[in-house]
Amino acid sequence: MAATTDIGIDLGTSSILVYAKGKGIVLKEPSVVAYDKDADKVRAIGEEARQMIGRTPGNIMAVRPMRQGVITDFLITERMLRYFIQKAMGRRAFRKPRISICVPSGVTEVERKAVEEATYQAGAREVLIVPEPVAAAIGSGIDITKPCGNMIVDIGGGTTDIAVISLAGTVVSNSVKISSETFDQDIIRYVRKTYNVFIGEQTAEAVKIRIGSAYPRAEEKTMEIKGRNVITGLPATITVSSDEIRGALVQTTNQIADAICAVLEKTRHYPDRRRQSPCRNGRADPGADRHQYRDSRKSGERRCPWNRPVPRSDE
Length: 315
Prior knowledge:
This protein is an alpha+beta fold. The protein is built from nine helices and 20 strands. Helix 6 packs across helix 7 and helix 6 (180-195) packs antiparallel against helix 8. The chain is globular, with a radius of gyration of 27 Å.
């Protein structure tokens, strides 16, 4: 029973992953909900709802209840979580599960409480909130308990989380509102401005995955895409290259690189004091510095601990 009552959820803006203890990843679906406004009912969740985006009548909305890593619609998020938990656990589960759920590192306390409350309302027995960079590091196989720094850059569907992790904790972190959706919007704007053709989010995502890059490729790739001509309103087919898409994404890529540099600048360097003071059996001897400080006063030279010179008061 314990193998099926402990699950982990990556509640992303674009997709949701559910991990069950002893089974691995048991579910991966888009975090999209098709909601009927007139009947106040959920028509579809997951992949079925994603296929309805842009193809629904006026009374049905295909919405994403998560935006930039936070909850925008509490009730729909609760129903979506309940559906995914039941699908991962099975209908014959007798105990409520213990759930570890990820949130971006830059969320506020109110946003964190909203995720926790929605998970409890969805049927959790116990909820543990885990920062996304820490979960990404553990999933990558990094031993975060070691006393050394590990930088994690997690480009998600709503935010990009950057963190330096050491000793199972976050030393410095930053969360910027730049994500894979930003790349999709860059591609949509580029195609519309250059070719006067409008394409949807799914087409832009396919272009990004197939020929998108942040660095020049050894061999240029091309892709044929279909859209609607914004002048005539008729269907149009165009061919774009990987170099064009890389140029369309360069501004967003540079913003992520600047955010990484900002986190590195905030990361302080702590020198190893054991190399700067006399040692006893491989350990720093604070008493040695105290005696050295006392002896230096007799000679007229003032020094503070760790052998740093201090100017005299009469100088």
